[in-house]
# Entry
Amino acid sequence: VSTLLVEVDGARLLQRLEALGRCGLRSGERYRALYDDAWVEATAVVASWIEEAGLRVRRDAVGNVWGRLEGTAGGRVIVTGSHIDTVRGGGTLDGALGLVGGIEALAALRWIGVRRTVETVAFCEEEGSRFDTQFWGSRAVIGDITPEEAERSRDGDGTTLAAAMRARDLDPARVREAARDDIDTFVELHIEQGPFLDEEGPRLAVVTAIAGTAHLEVEVRGVPDHAGTTPMSRRRDALRGAAAMMEAIAAVARDQGDPAVATVGRISVEPSQVNVVPGVARFSVDARHSVEAERRRLAAAIVQACERVAAERGLAVHITPLREREVVPTDERVSAVLRDACRAADIEPRPMPSAALQDSQIMAVRSAMGMIFVPSIGGRSHRMDEATKPEDIVLGTRALATALAMLAR
Ligand code: HGY
Ligand code: MN
Ligand code: MN
# Structure
């Protein structure tokens, strides 16, 4: 049976993405972080759009915003959506597309009618930009957060996540109430955030797996010394050791080949003085691969490379694994529906892994999960000039609406 592509209000979709993009825009930089003022503004705007779509709006115990389209058959729920927060200096589409597109898709489904109940969600946080936690919204939904974590996690100013919740009239003691066990399917529309669809096409992809990560903290210890009196040959400079490790880490990922990637994104030095040879250097490593065995091999090779450099330079190195996230495959049955929805638009979607982390990988713990990607112009994301062609934004949303209609039949 051939499926008809569901129509959505493309003009309104594009307008709303622009409007949401203005939340958190200050002196040319966009930043919408969990429970900050821009976040409050954005959640209010999204709630109003959900109501406008004729859906029942609900805010849960962590501030996720839900819209519900009741099906005639009841039963377990199909959910679509994405995250409302951004990185510092983020764009208008990462996360926003999935939740604004979700609202548009449900607005369209409301006219078609659904047998199964479908909901859309704006997850309160995914990026880990403000607090030392990540996926706060989706982890709440699968029951993977605790009040203790809210008390423990702090932002750069020392504010606890719990205090930030209280400031928004949310009770951190009740975060477990956001958990649900009635969601059996989760579908997310997202921008690719990489260059492949833009460069090589087609205009739609169906995600095969979400890359796994290894986050490490590397501490390099040398000897602090006088920057004037210590000859170069006698130094055990922790920062130069760290610099050599960073190059070695990049070489490990490059040698393993795509889609292996490794990033050092945070660094600190002690004593951090102009005239003292650094005694300690600490840096983070984010290593990713979309094949689980390769992800493990990459992480192990990075550890080895750091140890080798340390040994060569007479430095001590201590590596702490911060967090491991395994590769998460998408659900084959859901993906088959997503492929059919893309075909309704006359596009044979490209199967591809997600190199970025996604709320979907969390939702997959309890639900059959699938994702649709649209191209990112120049592969640009996590930056202000993140963009997707308007016609691709509309196309992706139509494919999402079509897939939801099929799943809700
Ligand atoms: O880090 C990630 O991949 C995601 O965009 N938060
Ligand atoms: Mn995202
Ligand atoms: Mn992101």
About this structure: Residues 87, 94, 127, 382 surround manganese (II) ion (ligand 3) (CB under 6 Å). The two ends are 14 Å apart (CA to CA).
